[in-house]
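Practice problem: predict the structure.
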Amino acid sequence: MKIYKLPLLAEAQDNGVYRLGSEELHTDGVDLAYGRLRPKEAARPVAIAPGREGVVCVIKGRISVKCGRSVFAVSTGEAFHAAPGASFTFENPGEAEAVYLIAGGQAGARRQEAAAASPQKTVQGETTAPCEETVYDITRDDTDTVD
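Answer:
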């Protein structure tokens, strides 16, 4: 078993993101991305690969997430599901560093079929599902829908 010091590994990357994936883990079943956003950092593109899906969890700070016409905030301890091929833009509106994890894995057959039926586009060399035309209903487990 190997222990990975994710904050140090992310700090060494130009984009502040370290992906623990198939190369290190010798598996295609799961991956983990650890990302750090500096205070006031804006417009970081994040894409989920086709055939994969993930859960994005904020572990420090607050992140503003833009997907198509939807913009929502995710704070420490909150998470959301990222469908196969989804693309987002993350921003840190705060004065302190924000940190997030994306735990990913192979998408189930239903999710893959739904993603395959959606039109595709390219973002930074990766094919992703379009978010531009989608408006998401954002809900929290303890409140009504957030506009």
